[in-house]
Amino acid sequence: AIDVANVEAEGFPNGLGVVKVMGRNSGFIAMHSALGCCVADLCLVPEVDFYFDGPGGIADHIYERIARNGKAVIVVAEGAGQNLMKEMGAAAGGEEVKKDLSGNVLLDDVGPWLVRQLKTRLDDRLAAATEYGDGLNTKYVDPSYMVRAVPPNAADNLYCSQLAQNAVHGAMAGFSNFLVGAINTRECYLPIELVVNKRNVIDTSHQSLWEYVVFATGQPSFQTDLDPHDDEDAMTTASGGVILSTE
Q1: For residues 107 and 23, is the Cβ–Cβ distance under 8 A?
Q2: How do residues 145-186 score in pLDDT, each as one tens digit?
Q3: Bridge partners, residue 180, by sequence
Q4: Which end of the chain is more exposed for a tag (fewer CB within 10 A), N or C?
C-alpha cells in the first residue's frame, strides 16, 4: 500500500500519498512500515501528538519535502490525531464517547480528515511556488484489514506452531487461565490476569526505535519535557514499546 501511494505521488506534480494503517491505541504497524518502506516522509501514531501550523508543524514539513522532492508520503495509524480532531471540532460524536458492539471506542476517520487539512494549507502555497500553478495532488490509500490478511510466511508458521503446541502441553499439564508468549526468545506460560490489563505502546522515551523513525523521515519529533513513565517502571520490549497498565 505504501509503495502504491509512493508511485501515485510520483506520478503527479506535487503529489502527496497518504496511507492509513491499523493501530487504534498503538502505532507499531505504522512505525515499522515507515521504517521498512524507506520512502515515508512522515509517520503519525497515537502515542505522539502532532499539530499542523507553526514551527515544527507537519504542514511546513510536508511543504518542504514536496518542494524538494516533488512528492511526499505519509503513514498514519488509525488512532492518531484523535485529540487534535476533537480540539478542532472535527470529531463526529462531539463530547459523547461512542462504542461498537465489542466495547471498543469508535474512532473518527483520521485519514480523509488529514488529507483535507493538508490540502487546505498547502494547495495555494504550492500553486504559487510552481511554474505551472500546480496545487497539492493527494492520493489516499486505506488497506484496512489487508495488513493482517496476507498469507503467513515461514517464520509466522513456525512461531504459531510453537505457541499452539505449548498451549496444548500446558493444558495437558493441568494449567488453566494462562496464555503462551515468548519472552527473551523463550516460550513461557503467563497468567491471564497478569496480561489482560496491560497494553504495549510505542515507547518514545526509553529506547531509540521511535528515534529511528524521526531520523529516517526527518519529521518533527513533537516531543515535550513531560515524561509520563518512570524509568524504574518502564518495561521495554523488542518491538520498540513499553508495557503500560490500562487500569
Answers
A1: no
A2: 787 888 889 999 999 999 999 999 999 999 999 999 888 888
A3: 189
A4: C
Distance CA 212, CA 218 (A): 10
Alpha-carbon distance of 172 to 206, in angstroms, equals 40
For 191, other C-beta atoms within 10 Å of its C-beta total 12
Chain center to CA of 101:
24
CB-CB contact of 162 with 40 (8 Å): no
Which residues, including other chains, have CB under 8 Å from residue 105's CB and lie 6 or more apart? 24, 97, 98, 99
pTM of the model: 0.82
Q: How many CB atoms lie within 10 A of CB 203?
A: 22
92 phi and psi angles, rounded to 5 deg: -70, -35
Q: For residues 213 and 43, what is the distance between their CA atoms, to the nearest angstrom?
A: 7
pLDDT in tens, 67-106: 999 999 999 999 999 989 988 876 655 556 777 777 777 8
CA dist., res. 208 & res. 228, Å (int) = 17
Give residue for cell 504559487: 128
Q: How far apart are CA 224 and CA 128, in angstroms?
A: 34
Reduce the DSSP state of residue 188 to 3 states and report it. strand
Report the residue count for the chain. 247
